[in-house]
């Protein structure tokens, strides 16, 4: 049976969740009678926790504003949410998260966590990477299961294979084994990168894969271990996977520009860029730009905004679209 001190702390946690709690509700949750609830409330008040009594039919107790922040008790998923929020805030350059206050807040939370919880959260923070495009999504993204997230982080840190149950974007469900290399946050979504285990004499030569965490319904560690590539970059693998995703059209361009000029209009999630070197007659840098797209109608405006010399290698349909777009611009410009 919980000790009275434990019940007092549980009472504080219930009040911290917000709203007014009736005496009957609190008594039921704590497993005591109403008189004992009132005695526990008096203990909190003696500790300078601002508990307010609310009279009336729907009355009870609530946590009121005080002159100082009362003690906080966070569940494992709540501590995870706070620490990830601070980490993301530092990555995004938010002043409060990146200040000394943000660092000390993170340190305080990690210091008081139970040992097993602290270890799991440390594994996640150590394995977490952000892409350069890690900004909030336009719409709220599905939230991954906290247990899945922590299990995968532990697998990354200790190089253990992990079993996954996964549902892809078409709704197809599958079971697979993954050697997890890293966890990546990208535009409000969470991903795990790694490889399917290879077979035969070299089990480390599996195909590189990326999975969305919110589509993983189960993750369990498996026996054994693996060696991850020393030069692996989880964020780079994620972006390369986006750029190489299978779509209807494969587009190949040659563009006379700098990488920065191309990236301003075609980020790494959209296109791959490779240097071709200067031409003999012009002496300027050319780039090979490759991307895949389900539709081509958005590319002519992008090429116009890029405003650099380019050659369309394929597909031929894009040439017709660019010509039509240029003719429309010309006709608009000639109007008086």
How are the SSEs placed, and which strands pair?
Blueprint: H1 4-16, H2 23-30, H3 34-46, E1 51-54, E2 60-63, H4 76-92, H5 95-98, H6 100-112, H7 115-127, E3 128-130, H8 146-158, E4 162-167, E5 173-186, E6 189-195, E7 208-212, E8 216-221, H9 234-243, E9 249-255, H10 259-263, E10 271-278, E11 285-293, H11 299-306, E12 310-314, H12 316-333
Parallel strand pairs: 3-5
Antiparallel strand pairs: 1-2, 4-5, 4-8, 5-6, 6-7, 9-11, 9-12, 10-11
Helix pairs in contact: 1-3, 2-3, 4-6, 7-8, 11-12
Describe this protein's structure.
The structure is a single chain. This protein is of the alpha+beta class. The protein has helices at residues 4-16, 23-30, 34-46, 76-92, 95-98, 100-112, 115-127, 146-158, 234-243, 259-263, 299-306, 316-333; strands at 51-54, 60-63, 128-130, 162-167, 173-186, 189-195, 208-212, 216-221, 249-255, 271-278, 285-293, 310-314. The strands form 3 sheets. Strands 3, 4, 5, 6, 7 and 8 form a 6-stranded mixed sheet that branches. Strands 10-11-9-12 form a 4-stranded antiparallel sheet. Helix 1 packs across helix 3 (34-46) and helix 7 packs across helix 8. It is elongated. The termini are far apart. Residues 199-205 have low confidence and may be disordered.
